[in-house]
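Lab meeting, item 3. Inverse folding demo.
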């Protein structure tokens, strides 16, 4: 799908790229509280909650789920963060590892404009430094959060210790709930 074809899609859509691979077009198929399901053909599905990837299907290694501490919904990624640590629980079925404690600290990177399909979007960059001690896995997720709307327009996220980072960018946003 070319950029022009992606821009012409009349549905909420998102570009998804694993590592250095080509970007694929995913269309929003379900928009429920705490669960936006994006599908790319028959081979790939990505579920997000407030811009954070919380479940994947179709990659070589998949994220079975993410929840907040004690099973609560994941805390949203916000354009301004007051600091402090947050704990997330990750599930990796292929590793037989469930409720893996991941401790994250978000650092505000400041304002940064990004360009998506020719449109300039003023955002605030948020770097989320995380560590899963039991897996000896450290990573940094990066989010570009819209200054006006608070939406995560672009992200680079690590969703599995055996997988390259996943880059997402909202090509056509979902309608406001």
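The presenter then showed the designed sequence:
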């Amino acid at each position: 799908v070319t950029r022009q074809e992606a821009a012409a899609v009349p549905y909420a859509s998102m570009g998804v790229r694993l590592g250095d691979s080509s970007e694929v077009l995913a269309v929003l198929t379900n928009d429920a509280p705490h669960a936006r399901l994006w599908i790319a053909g028959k081979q790939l599905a990505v579920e997000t909650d407030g811009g954070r990837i919380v479940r994947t299907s179709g990659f070589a290694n998949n994220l079975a789920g993410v929840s907040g501490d004690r099973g609560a919904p994941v805390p949203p990624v916000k354009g301004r963060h007051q600091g402090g640590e947050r704990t997330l629980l990750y599930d990796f079925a292929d590793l037989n590892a469930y409720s893996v404690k991941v401790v994250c600290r978000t650092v505000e990177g400041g304002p940064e404009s990004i360009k998506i399909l020719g449109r300039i979007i003023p955002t605030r960059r948020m770097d989320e430094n995380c560590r899963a001690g039991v897996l000896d896995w450290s990573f940094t997720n990066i989010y570009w959060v819209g200054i006006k709307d608070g939406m995560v327009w672009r992200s680079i996220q690590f969703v599995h210790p055996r997988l390259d980072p996943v880059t997402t960018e909202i090509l056509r946003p979902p309608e406001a709930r």
